[in-house]
Write a structure and sequence with these properties.
The protein is mostly helical and 368 residues long. The protein has 2 domains: 2-250 and 265-287, no CATH class; 294-362, no CATH class. The chain is built from 14 helices and 6 strands.
């Protein structure tokens, strides 16, 4: 799987840098056909049509969400708000309106990307042609499940299947790879995400956009895993398998292991992308019925304390080491990490991070 998809990614990266030539997209198409064999048949012209339709759809989503964000920014800038007086009536009105509008933008973007992913999955099923061997659900993890996605987020998802047989596994492996190919053809996957070393004179300067979680050692939150033997078909699971794995880690009393982050954090929120909602609901019902043991709750408290020490949002003029800050992990992910730890600590059940925040606020734990 790895060599095929790496070659496919590299050909698309070349096509991005040499748009006047059809050679590279032709090779990308040929690479897919080599993997598919007789199982999927699609002409080069049909593939180009599908790719162009998907590119148009994702760009439309981005345009709409950029306009929404711009309107929020303009609205906020139009208020003459004294930051130092956070308790003033005006500040509270500004805060409430701003937060509400940002939540709406976030929810809208998440819904758009779920629909976009649904389209890709349906296209892939149509290409595979053979009937689905059993009921299944494509389930979002990560940002898309937490309601925090952007049009440039990567896709983390799993397949919940009604029954696992060798034939079933083969079908869902084929479906997963077909989904990967359609996403790769958008030409928004940087080489490093597919664990490809940058070549001399071929810097990885391509667009970083919608992509699968990747083939890097620490990635692979996708049905087939990151391609390494121990991750083979990692996220093609029956409901009982997912529940068993989740429960085993949830009940782990080793605080040090929990502090490193684990499987349960990734599945703290899940959302249906495609397929049988009942399969996901079976897992969700069991998950929401679990209560954290004392060791795990203590570990949550330690994680919150560590988060507060790790992230210090000083004004830029006093932040002497700001140039060393990793924006994605230290700023963008920080609210998600803190919200999730609070959610576990107070045993809050919620659909997404926004609902968690509201419940924490309603409990009087979080200020206005």
């Amino acid at each position: 799987m790895i060599p095929v998809f790496q070659a496919h990614t590299l050909y698309n990266a070349c096509a991005l840098r040499d748009p006047g030539s059809k050679r590279w997209i032709t090779e990308a198409h040929r690479t897919q056909c080599i993997y598919w064999g007789q199982r999927v048949e699609i002409s080069f012209e049909k593939q180009q049509e599908i790719t162009q339709n998907l590119k148009t759809q994702i760009e439309t989503i981005r345009f709409g969400n950029r306009k929404s964000l711009e309107s929020v920014t303009k609205l906020f800038d139009s208020w003459d708000c004294v930051v130092e007086n956070l308790d003033s009536k005006k500040s509270k009105i500004v805060n409430n309106v701003f937060v509400d509008k940002m939540r709406r933008v976030s929810e809208s973007c998440t819904a758009d990307i779920r629909d976009f992913t649904n389209t890709i999955i349906q296209r892939s099923i149509d290409l595979c042609k053979q009937p689905q061997p059993c009921k299944f659900a494509a389930v979002a993890m990560g940002l898309l499940a937490r309601g925090e996605t952007t049009p440039y987020s990567d896709l983390e998802f799993l397949f919940l299947v009604e029954e696992k047989t060798s034939d079933n596994i083969e079908y869902f492996r084929l479906l997963a790879m077909t989904i990967y190919f359609l996403i790769g053809n958008l030409q928004e996957t940087k080489l490093k995400y597919m664990n490809i070393q940058e070549l001399k004179g071929f810097d990885d300067t391509g667009k970083n956009g919608f992509k699968i979680d990747g083939l890097q050692p620490k990635a692979g939150n996708i049905p087939t895993g990151n391609g390494r033997p121990e991750q083979k078909d990692k996220f093609i699971l029956t409901v009982s398998e997912l529940i068993t794995e989740y429960t085993k880690i949830w009940n782990n009393s080793d605080a040090e292991e929990f502090m490193k982050g684990d499987f349960t954090a990734m599945l703290g929120h899940t959302a249906l992308l495609y397929g049988d909602a009942d399969l996901l609901q079976q897992f969700e019902s069991v998950k929401h019925g679990m209560t954290a043991n004392i060791a795990r709750r203590n570990a949550n408290h330690k994680m919150i304390q560590q988060d507060i020490l790790d992230y210090d949002f000083l004004p830029l003029e006093t932040q002497t080491v700001f140039h060393r800050v990793k924006l994605k992990s230290a700023i963008y992910r920080y609210p998600s990490i803190l919200i999730f730890n609070l959610q576990l600590t107070y045993n809050i059940s919620s659909r997404d991070s926004w609902e968690t925040l509201k419940k924490i606020h309603d409990m009087g734990i979080l200020s206005d």
